[in-house]
Amino acid sequence: MSAPAAGGDAVIVRDVAKSFGETHALRGVSLAVAPGELFGFIGPDGAGKTTLFRILTTLMLPDAGSARVLGFDVERDLWAIRARVGYMPGRFSLYPDLTVEENLRFFAAVFGTTIAEGRAVIEPIWRQIAPFASRRADALSGGMKQKLALCCALVHRPDILFLDEPTTGVDAVSRREFWEILAELRAGGLTTLVSTPYMDEASQCDRVALIHEGRILAIAPPDALGAGFGQALVAVRGADRFALLKLLREHSDTLAVYPFGAELHLTSRRPAAERDAAARDVAAWLAARGHPDAVVAPIEPGIEDTFMARMSGAAGEAAA
Amino acid sequence: MRTIRFLLRKEYRQIFRDRVMVAQIFMVPIIQMLVLANAATFSVRSVQLWVVDDDRSSVSRAIVDRLTASGRFVLAGSSASMAEADDALLDRRAGLILHLPARLERELVRTRRGEIQMIFNAEDGAAAGIASAYAQRIVAGYGAELAAELRPAVGAIGAASDAPRAAGGSLDLRLRGWYNPELDYRDFMVPGILVVLVTIVGSMLTAVNIAREKELGTLDQLNVTPVTKTQFIAGKLIPLWSIGLVELGVGLAFAHAVFGVPVRGSLWLVFGAAAMYLVVALGIGLLVSAMVDTQQQAMFVIYFILIVYLLMSGLFTPVRSMPVWAQWVSAFTPVQHFVTVMRSVLLKGGGVGDVWRELLVLAGYGVVVFWVAVRQYRKRVA
Q1: CA B380 → CA A58, B220, B223, distances in Å?
Q2: Rounded to whole angstroms, how far apart are CA atoms A274 and A38?
Q3: How far apart are CA B253 and CA B113, in angstroms?
Q4: CB-based contacts of B266: which residues, under 8 Å, 6+ apart?
Q5: How many CB pairs under 8 A join A and B?
Q6: Shortest Cα distance from A49 to chain B (angstroms)?
């Protein structure tokens, strides 16, 4: 069946596996992305995000499993997929020696279209980079480069967009602007798959998949990921973070403890409902062991906590 | 077709925007021609001559004069003892010791035979061989003159080695080199250097250019488009192919104008053969680019291939003096065949009828290399 199924999922991945020699980049990944969804892949470097994107954009063949994009099989219908997807690889990959406008015109041309025809789609981004239209691409700032790359991926009006770590190495302001653009595109109904190593960006997505060592740990809307966190979570702040970390590992309630910004986050064995009591216990326990200044407070789990908990297997399968 | 046109436009734009590249296209053939044609010559000039003249006669002085007057030898010094001359040879102040023994002139008149000794520094065997041939010819020529003058009193004077006793003998040998009558090495070298140029441009630029797209990640970007393999390859190779032909034109025009290298045959044939040969060179570049990930790797692999090809091609050393297995290898390098065509057409005025075999080999080579290269180039990783 090579025709796209009307009303079906935009992306269907079934048990996809891919190895490079001894390295298992993907160990059986399955997921489905609905049309119009802004779907995020969150995971550390080497989790398998890029490999999955390369398979979905027909640059690589899976070792096992199957995948469909817009209803087309990634192995058999590659030309149908290539004509319909917009892809932005992780590295900036436009021609540094061509100008902004030349790059855009070139990528429009290879899709058999023109900038004018794609204008409506790229307008919000093009407005921002148009002042630099005649500048060579290698003379752009990091954020501008990403916007140009996004323009080039959009100029042929794709039905689906794959963005592989579009904000890696981009400053905070440009990152925010970039996500604002993605929100606008979602409002326009464009299905978008985006990967990122930054946990905080997940909250911008409709749904996120946590991916680690080639496996999907969880798929859920960003706020539900935290809700699925069954354990009490407390933040500990103190002068000697390293000593605290070592000490807290010995506490009888501790499932996992890890640095989080300036604090330590401790996942307790006690259920989420008892987090106030858990925090009081930890504070008293620390005071008795020479850390009376340690500040302990119960907190709501963020995506990163969920991620850490799932990586260490501390938080059941509730959110799966 | 429209897509290829855009790919071509982009490629030409990138090439001509790169100042270094443009400078290379026009300057490299000229510089290479100047350097190689002057440096990579087989003629030997200015051999340092050290004289040990124990005779001090008119004959001994005349021999020294003849040698230095030829322009091939420069008088670097003289001494009374051979020991000093040996030292000069050892520390490279001399390349040739000419020892004229005492009573040379008297012996010559009395017995009609004279013996002189020449000792060459043969570290560089080829150069020493050529210098010794010059010296023998000059001494033998003088001997012939002497014989004519003093006949029948004096027979001949010859070098201590087995120099041809052409002079005064009954056999009169006259040598004439055809197609390159002055044995000008430049005429011989330049067509070969043009081949080197075209080879480097063809394979090196292709491999590095495509490896660069891989490095930049633009190849991935381009692969997720409806651009087909054929379109991509055509878009890459047509510009480089045309640059190769322009390079050949610039180099040939320069060689003709400045060095007076003859163009005796048809220019159409020269460029037609080059067009075919470039397909081979580009195919090699394409093949290498399919195997490597970075520009650096591409350059190293191409260097390796080019060095083997060029040394085996008969460009610097005659193929016939190689061992049989090497001659077979040589027959399989496309470079040799193109060098043969270039020399034949430029120097001998050869036509298609003279070089059809080489053209056929080039065409066959082009088809095979190109076919393998296109098959190797994949739009995705398995």
Answers
A1: 7, 9, 8
A2: 35
A3: 53
A4: B345, B351
A5: 75
A6: 16
**Hey, what domains does chain A have and what are their CATH numbers?**
11-223 (3.40.50.300), 230-300 (3.30.70)
Q: Are A46 and A23 in contact (CB under 8 A)?
A: no
Nearest residue on chain A to B10, judged by CA atoms?
Answer: A106
Using the Cβ of A60 and the Cβ atoms of chain B, whether some distance falls under 8 Å is answered with yes
In chain A, which residues have their Cβ closer than 8 Å to the Cβ of B4? none
Q: Look at residues B90, B240, B112 and name the one whose alpha carbon lies nearest to residue B165.
A: B112
The domain spans of chain B are 2-40+183-376, 47-159
pLDDT at B220: 85
Amino acid at B282: L
Q: At B168, which amino acid appears?
A: G
> What percentage of chain B carries pLDDT values higher than 90?
20
**3-class SS of residue B81:** coil
- pLDDT recorded at residue B184: 62
Cβ distance B221 to A94 less than 8 Å, yes or no, reads yes
Average pLDDT of B56-83? 88
B381: nearest CA in chain A?
A60
3-state secondary structure of B5: helix
Q: Does B7 lie at the interface with A, CB-CB under 8 angstroms?
A: yes
Query: Which tens digit of pLDDT belongs to each residue from A120-175?
Result: 888 888 888 889 999 999 999 888 898 999 999 999 999 999 999 988 888 888 88
**CATH class of the domain defined by B47-159:** alpha beta
- Residue B382 pLDDT > 50: no
A83 close contact with B: CB closer than 8 A: yes
pLDDT score for B155: 46
Contact B55, B100 (CB under 8 A): yes
Could you read off the pLDDT of A286-307 as tens digits, one per residue? 888 888 888 888 888 777 777 7
| R_g (Cα) of chain B, nearest Å | 28
Of A59 and A302, the structure prediction assigns the larger pLDDT to: A59
Summarize pLDDT for B305-341 with one digit per residue, the tens.
Answer: 888 888 877 777 777 777 888 888 877 788 888 988 9
What is the spatial order of strands in the sheet that A23-33 belongs to?
Answer: A23-33, A11-20, A64-69, A72-73
Q: B221, A79: Cβ pair inside 8 Å?
A: no
- Residue B153: its pLDDT value, please? 46
Whole-angstrom distance, CA of residue A141 vs CA of residue A56 = 29
Average pLDDT rounded to a whole number, residues A32-51: 91
- Report the chain A residue with the minimal C-alpha distance to residue B219: A93
Q: Are A224 and A238 in contact (CB under 8 A)?
A: no
How far is the C-alpha of A17 from the C-alpha of A215, rounded, in Å? 9
Look at the block and give the residue holding tokens 């006793």: B165
Look at the block and give the residue holding tokens 């490079």.
A20
Measure CB to CB from residue A94 to each of B13, B18, B218 and give the nearest one. Answer: B218
Residues counted in chain A: 320
